[in-house]
């Protein structure tokens, strides 16, 4: 048996898992912890910090609202990019990355309370270069919106340069036209290829 206050914490965590719409394992990963750690919180054997509980509730509520309002999340973006990349279609995968960036921009402008759905730790089943690109996009959009960038976006730069091919531009010209916030991650994309209509 656990005391009344511990039971209240357990009940709130259970409600957060349910509201998230994710499995226990996926919700734990999204929060940056392990499934076993989250399970230990949910049994009352270990008490989570107040910050962890509030974060779990905030993210779960944002995920529920995003589902209800059909607003895409980082989980949706990463899954779309993973599927496109598995077909070895770089043009389509890049188009989806740009679309994810634009949807995030719209979310931060119109549905700011749903920013939490882009803060969560995304799954690691996406190729390193696409994950790095999306991390750069998300970090940049949060910064532009005056918000702190999610911790998961602080991934190290790519080990080797990735230059996105642009017709009629050489690799050195592409590098010269790449914004600093991308170049610092060893990703080189001409500014004009970052523009969407």
Describe the structure.
The chain is mostly helical. The protein has two domains: 4-69, 434 Repressor (Amino-terminal Domain) (Orthogonal Bundle); 74-194, no CATH class. Helix content is 60%, strand content 2%. It is built from ten helices and two strands. It has helices at 4-20, 24-30, 35-43, 50-69, 74-86, 90-110, 116-119, 128-144, 171-176, 180-183; strands spanning 162-163, 187-188. Strands 1-2 form a two-stranded parallel ribbon. The longest helix is centred in the middle third of the chain and has 21 residues, at 90-110. The mean pLDDT is 94. This is Helix-turn-helix domain-containing protein. InterPro entries: Cro/C1-type_HTH, Lambda_DNA-bd_dom_sf.
- Order of strands in the sheet with most strands: 1-2
Say how many strands there are.
Answer: 2
Q: Give the total of domains.
A: 2
Distance between the termini: 59 Å
The percentage helix is 55-70%
Give the overall form.
elongated
Structural class computed from helices and strand pairing: mainly alpha
The percent range for strand residues is under 5%
Spans with pLDDT under 50 lasting ≥5 residues?
Answer: none
Query: How many helical elements?
Result: 10
The multimeric state of the shown protein is single chain
- The rounded Rg comes to 19 Å
Q: What's the helix-strand series?
A: HHHHHHHHEHHE
- Give average pLDDT, whole number: 94
Major β-sheet, in short?
2 strands, parallel
């Amino acid at each position: 048996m656990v005391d009344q206050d511990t039971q209240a914490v357990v009940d709130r965590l259970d409600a957060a898992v349910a509201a998230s719409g994710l499995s226990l394992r996926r919700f734990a990963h999204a929060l940056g912890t392990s499934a076993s750690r989250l399970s230990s919180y949910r049994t009352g054997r270990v008490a989570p910090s107040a910050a962890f509980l509030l974060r779990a509730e905030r993210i779960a509520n944002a995920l529920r609202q995003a589902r209800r309002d059909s607003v895409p999340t980082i989980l949706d973006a990463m899954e779309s990019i993973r599927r496109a990349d598995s077909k070895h279609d770089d043009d389509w995968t890049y188009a989806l990355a740009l679309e994810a960036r634009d949807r995030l921009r719209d979310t931060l402008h119109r549905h700011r309370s749903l920013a939490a759905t882009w803060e969560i730790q995304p799954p690691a089943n996406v190729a390193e270069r696409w994950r790095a690109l999306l991390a750069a996009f998300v970090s940049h959009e949060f910064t532009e919106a005056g918000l702190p960038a999610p911790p998961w976006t602080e991934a190290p730069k790519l080990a080797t340069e990735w230059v996105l091919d642009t017709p009629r531009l050489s690799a050195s010209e592409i590098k010269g036209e790449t914004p600093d916030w991308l170049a610092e991650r060893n990703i080189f994309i001409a500014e004009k290829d970052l523009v969407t209509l």
